[in-house]
Give the backbone structure.
Amino acid sequence: MTRPAIIQPQLAPVTGIDDHLPPVPAAALTPEAIRARLAALPGWSPEFAGDGGLFPGRTPTGAAVLLPLVQRDAGLNLLLTRRTDHLRDHAGQISFPGGRTEPQDDGPVATALRETEEEIGLPRERIEVIGQLPVYATVTAFQVTPVVGLVRPGFTLALDAFEVAEAFEVPLAFLMNPAHHRHHRFELAGTERRFLSMPWQGAGREYFIWGATAAMLRNLYRLLSAP
C-alpha cells in the first residue's frame, strides 16, 4: 500500500482526546524510575509499531533517534528539534535528533549519539544511555530504534543549519499526560488516515508534535504507565 504525504496535519479533524487515561505519576518520571523501568522491561506491547503504508520506491533502511531527557531542577524535559522546511523527508516537522544508520555505526546507540552530535552539537559525554524502545517503522521506510538517554545540563547546542531549524524543550510530564494526546482521522486520496498529536505551546507559538514522534512518545507513555 502506498500513500501521499500529509501536508497540513494540524488541519486534520480531532476525533478524540485521551483525557480518560491517567497521566504517568511524578514518581515514575524521575531518572531513577525511568532507568529502572527500562532495565526491567515489563510485559507490555507498544501501541504503535509504525505509520502503516509506505511511500513508493523506498527500500527499508535502519535508523535511530535519541530521546534526550534533560535533567532540570523542575524535572525532566524532552529535547526536540524542528526540521528545516527544505528537507526531502519530514520537512518542518518536530522530531527527535537522529537519522539513518551508517556502516561505521556499531548499532543503534552509536547511530543515535553520532546523529545527535552532528545535528545539534550535543556531546555524547553528557548523555547516559538508559535503554531502548521497540523499532518503529515510518512511512518513509526507516526502521527507527528509539534510544532513551539522560542528559546532564550545562551544554551549549550548535545546530546544523541545513537540517535543524531550532531545538526546544518540553516538560516530560506534559507529554506523559494523555489529556494532551489528540487523535486525528480524515480521508486523503481515497484512503482513511489516522495519527496522534501532542500540541505544545512554548515561546509564544505552538509546536505541533505529531506522526512518528508522537507515536513513539505514546509508546513511552505505555511503558511508563504499565503496571
Summary: The first strand starts at residue 14 and ends at 17. The chain is about 20% helix and 35% strand. The mean pLDDT is 90. The two ends are 36 Å apart (CA to CA).
